[in-house]
Design a protein that fits this description.
The chain is an alpha+beta fold. It has one helix at about 5-15; strands at about 20-30, 35-40. The chain contains one helix and two strands; from the N terminus they run αββ. The longest helix has 13 residues, at about 5-15.
Length: about 60
């Protein structure tokens, strides 16, 4: 599990509620070999789809 996953998931959900589309990315550190979560901006459509089949992303 990512060391900062809870904080990034909370931030992702807050931004999603504000209709900001972000990518949730996981990466492993080169030196410490620990997983880290981060949000990245989406190129293209800035808002999520209105009728997403995914219940997490549905508005």
């Amino acid at each position: 599990m990512a060391v900062n996953a809870a904080d990034v998931v909370a931030e992702y959900r807050t931004r999603l509620a504000g209709r900001v589309n972000q990518l949730f990315a996981l990466r492993r550190g080169v030196i410490d070999n620990r997983w880290k979560a981060e949000l990245r901006p989406v190129k293209g459509a800035r808002t999520p789809f209105e009728h997403s089949p995914c219940t997490v992303h549905r508005i």
